[in-house]
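Thread: iron/sulfur cluster complex, take 2
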Amino acid sequence: SSPLLQVEEVSKRFRVQGRELHAVEKVSFQLDAGKTMGLVGESGSGKSTLGRLVLRLLDANEGRIVFNGQDITKLSPKQMRPLRRDMQIIFQDPQASMSPRMTIGAAIEDAMAIHNIGTKAERQKRVDELLERVGLSTVVKYAFPHELSGGQLQRVGIARALSLNPKLVICDEPISALDVSIQVQVIQLLQELQKDFNLTYIFISHNLAVVEYLSDQVAVLYLGEVVEQGPAEELFANPTHPYTQVLLQSILKMPEDADKRQALTSIQGEIPSPFNPPSGCTFHPRCPFATDVCRQKKPERKLVGSQHSVTCHLAN
Ligand code: SF4
Ligand code: MG
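Output below.
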């Protein structure tokens, strides 16, 4: 069977005040139905932009996006419309995408009405089912967004996405704004729903621990480029790019070698300006292992496992 989603060499550049910003640079991956792709990186690494390119909320400058066997890269908004319900997005801040004057029930029903799903009575019945399915009381349908907690609102956001029976759901930092105890509940809910409805997820997060827990495939992004990519198990067992290793510090998966561990702990600096990316390997100003070749020459992607690739001069 062919993958549900194929992203091929997709690039996105923005022009801002006459300057060019490479937001996403030649990203490729494939994702099978029912699986999760984790996209990790700091803010500004291009992961949200990549999510929007996949959904065709933004147009890529280069590359191809194939969804469910169909090349959607050049479809017009009108041609995209019937596909919209198959591809949904869950945001970090669900309230931002909800009208403050619409009740929760109306907001979920509205999502279905826009796509001509069912009669009004059928949609209202479905609102109740969906609220229960995401662990909320059906009385929530009479509430307004400001009356719910962040965790409840995120469940509503999930219910709204689910109301359309999507195939692909992009989860863009869906738990980052929630308390830790609530984060776990929402993660478990997303997992259950994936199983029950064979959902395919792109899970965007800066939290590598959550990505490790949820993902089948992982891509680590830095300044719009994938620096390491592969099956989650393989990548987490053998994190090879220094940036991945830095990110992994936070979940205490450090290299065995004590010197290497010390070098990674002392990493300095912020993510550089995407308008003026560093020469050679764009990670070199922050990389404890950088050498002259790193400052001069852009590393090429190398396979370090059957499907595990790393873009670093040190990889072999
Ligand atoms: Fe560090 Fe050089 Fe590898 Fe870039 S190519 S991550 S600077 S070692
Ligand atoms: Mg983002």
